[in-house]
Amino acid sequence: MRLFGSNLLNKYFARKISAGVTALLVFSVAPAQAIISPSTIPTVFGEMLLSPILANPSMILIDAQSGEVIYEKNANSLRKPASTQKIFSAAATLRYINPNEVFRTSVSLGIKPKTLVIQGSYDPWISYTHYEAVKMKRTSLPRLAFNSLSAAKRANKGSARGLTIEYSELNSRDVANFKVFFKKRGYTPKFKRVSSAVAFQDAGTEIVASNSPPVSQILEFTMLWSDNLLADRLAKLASKRAGNPFSEEGVAITFAQVLLDLGIDPSRMIVADGSGLSRENRVSAKIMADLLFKLRKDPQYEILYTSLPVGGVSGTLRNRFLTTAPSAVGLVHAKTGTLNGTVSLAGYIESGEREYIFVTVADKIGRSNRASDKARALMDRILGRIAAPTVPTTPAIETSTVTS
């Protein structure tokens, strides 16, 4: 199963092309702005951050090539990262899961009387609504359940009463939704969790199966649209593959392992989930910037960069920078974050021949949409002061003088 069907794929790329054209138009009408030098950035940023709009945020800017810290403010303080936490989930996913891996879920009639067997693989891509599944080419839980119930009835003279459903490697939420599906139709089968080996042994004739798109496409969707459920599931899968518990506690251990493997001290981080939705998460801007620096230089994590939303162009950044900082449109690749009272942004920005890594976390702002909107706008304007496209150099044309 692919992420997009042919029509959806065409629409997807059409939107990207349209967004790219918009970005080019913005570049063409935006007033030219001199690139401020690294030595000037601390003064400029410091003055802009005197504004109470960001309420004493945590911020750091480092050179993406050398790792030199260009500017920092409260960079070592522990702050609520919101959805920028997904950067850690993406790193763990790419560290421990093959980006080409596909998840398969199948349902079979059991070799025992009145049994069904569900063989899962902790597919994070399962959708709870058939409409969403069809639209996004996702694994449809209602489709799996409907075909399972129909087959069970056919095999048991029209009744599914007294049914036992053995299952392996299903997320608990998926199991709960299977139970809801059957209960709404008047059946309460016994669900029995078994090992993958037992499920394989007990499975008879396959009824229905579904394959997810590869991990790389799931991760791209997760980062582009900041999908909390997918981020949590990918983080737990990475934890399981790393040999840690399939739980939030395992995720915390796995994130620490990823950081340690990259030479980063994980002690300035508190992990409660893989999505950033929990208000218990804490991380310093310095740790996140160090991680982004390491990931940018390692080909294993290239998918992370290409999966990030682009300012004014795609995903959760598609409407950012267009009016607040037009000079930055198309030049910011970053993960957004939003909680009530928190706005964050972390990623990469082009500045002429340079590239910077930045992290900004404002987790002390007012708990209103107005306060969040003003905080985002100021973040955009700050980055707009350093954003500039790389201007390709035009090779000199050699001329020769002909003498007679």
Distinctive features:
404 residues; alpha+beta; 39% helix; D-tyrosyl-trna(Tyr) Deacylase, Chain: A; 2 domains; five-stranded antiparallel beta sheet; Beta-lactamase; disordered N terminus; elongated
Number of helices: 13
Name the CATH homologous superfamily of the largest domain. DD-peptidase/beta-lactamase superfamily
Tell me the β content: 15-25%
**According to CATH, what is the topology of the largest domain?**
Beta-lactamase
Q: What is the CATH first-level class name of the largest domain?
A: Alpha Beta
N-to-C SSE series?
A: HHEEHEEEHEHEHEHEHHHEEHHEEEH
Q: What form results from the Cα inertia axes?
A: elongated
Describe this structure in words.
The relative contact order is 0.18. β3 (104-110) and β4 (115-119) form a beta hairpin. α3 packs across α10, α8 (215-225) crosses α9 (228-241) and α9 packs across α10. The N and C termini lie far apart (72 Å). The chain has 404 residues and is of the alpha+beta class. It folds into two domains: 23-98 and 217-384, Beta-lactamase; 104-212, D-tyrosyl-trna(Tyr) Deacylase, Chain: A. It is built from 13 helices and 14 strands. 39% of the residues lie in helices and 19% in strands. The longest helix is centred in the first third of the chain and has 24 residues, at 6-29. The strands form four sheets. A five-stranded antiparallel β-sheet has the order 2-1-14-13-12, with helices on both faces. The chain has helices spanning 6-29, 41-48, 86-96, 130-136, 141-155, 172-184, 196-202, 215-225, 228-241, 248-261, 285-296, 302-307, 369-384; strands spanning 58-63, 69-73, 104-110, 115-119, 126-127, 139-140, 164-168, 190-193, 203-211, 269-270, 282-283, 332-339, 342-351, 354-362.
